[in-house]
Design goal:
It contains one helix and 30 strands. With 385 residues, it is mainly beta. It folds into three domains: 207 residues, no CATH class; 94 residues, Immunoglobulin-like (Sandwich); 71 residues, Immunoglobulin-like. A hairpin with a 5-residue loop joins strand 26 and strand 27.
Length: 385
């Protein structure tokens, strides 16, 4: 924020003489790691305008099995500003990967174009519709500023970083953006590169050889007020334990239980863990294998919908075409609010089930409020077409 305040002070000062400047005040890369995605800040101004909550610079992203696709760059965002007579034309993330300690003299960078996404028409937080889900972050932006993103309204990047041979690697990146100070052109290129100190922004990760477990099928059995998660392995070697992880959105997972592993086996082994306190509606699960040497491997994600007596719930979340609300009581008042608090839908339940056509609404996070004489319930809903 100090950086942005300084830029804004300069813009105000020089605009008195008819000249101002454009600039960048926040940048972050969107990384998918072991099934969970998050923004990692490069430039982070603070005071509510950071894009994410994690830091990229100097971070060890972890150990990943070769060709597992468990570490990916899937997008990026920057936020820019300009004076009344200035212009901002484009933004781009540039990255390279090399073995740690062996930086090339002239690194070759891969570019990811960040499309213009929105003018910040008013102070707003979170992601814009059609972009990253609100739960991912996106930070706030101020009226008159601009957001540039991949995917934005386009196709998300899908850069698999696990294709390298086993070893330790450095992920290096910087941002470039174009515009014109005191004009409508695109003649000037500026950079966000950690002041080139010492070599742009850097984080590290490690690629390991194939993890020593072969997962068989994983399934979840819905027991109405609890869920049984079962899986089996086809073979194991140096496995220490399995951890059951739970999520409400299929993105952010939390550990809810552990069970010892066989350690070494060439035959099929079966495992079961119970989730005795599932949430109303959709519950997601995956299993994490923990090796004695510290490596990890993840199963595929499974889900089920729990209908707890006496509670209304959304049957399909995230929502694609139809938002299905179940377990309603006749006369319940149902209201849908968008991320900015605007009422976009309202009705009164005529039966125990309500189907809302989600095709009328843009991608994003909504709040579904259900009110009756006995209760007032608010449920988060993610619409993703």
């Amino acid at each position: 924020m100090i950086k942005k305040i300084l830029f804004l002070f300069i813009c105000i000062f020089v605009s008195l003489s008819g000249y101002a400047q454009f600039g960048l005040y926040a940048s972050a890369v969107y990384i998918k790691s072991n099934g969970s995605s998050a923004f990692y800040n490069n430039t982070a101004p603070g005071l509510g305008q950071d894009i994410g909550t994690l830091t990229f610079q100097g971070t060890d992203l972890g150990v990943f099995e070769q060709n597992s696709a468990n570490l990916k760059i899937t997008g990026s965002e920057v936020k820019t500003f300009k004076g009344p007579g200035d212009n901002v034309c484009s933004a781009r993330l540039n990255f390279t990967v090399y073995p740690t300690g062996v930086r090339p003299v002239s690194p070759i960078y891969t570019a990811i174009d960040l499309g213009f996404y929105a003018d910040c028409f008013a102070p707003a937080c979170g992601a814009f519709f059609g972009s990253f889900p609100l739960v991912a972050g996106g930070g706030c932006c101020t009226a008159g500023d601009q957001k540039w993103q991949n995917p934005g309204s386009g196709i998300a990047a899908d850069i698999d970083l696990t294709t390298f041979t086993p070893g330790s690697y450095t992920l290096e990146m910087y941002y470039s953006y174009t515009g014109e100070d005191g004009g409508a052109g695109c003649v000037t290129t500026k950079f966000d590169n950690n002041n080139n100190n010492p070599v742009n922004y850097t984080a590290s990760f490690t690629i390991s050889s194939t993890a020593p477990v072969s997962f068989g099928n994983i399934q979840v059995t819905n027991l109405q007020n609890r869920n049984k998660i079962s899986w089996y392995t086809l073979s194991e070697s140096e496995t220490a334990s399995f951890t059951l992880e739970h999520s409400l959105n299929g993105i952010s997972f939390n550990s809810i239980g552990d069970i010892p592993a066989a350690g070494y086996s060439t035959t099929s082994k079966a495992y079961t863990l119970m989730h005795n306190d599932p949430n109303m509606g959709i519950n997601y699960y995956r299993v994490r294998m923990n090796e004695n040497g510290g490596r990890q491997q993840f199963s595929r994600v499974v889900k089920t919908s729990n209908n707890l007596p006496g509670h209304a719930y959304v049957n399909n979340n995230p929502v694609n075409n139809n938002l299905l609300v179940k377990n309603l009581s006749k006369g319940d008042v149902i209201t849908l609010f968008n991320a900015y608090g605007a009422n976009v839908y309202r009705t009164v339940a005529a039966s125990g089930q309500l189907n809302i056509d989600a095709n009328f609404y843009a991608n994003g996070v909504y709040l579904l409020k259900i009110i009756n004489k006995d209760s007032n319930v608010t449920l988060p809903v993610i619409i993703q077409h």
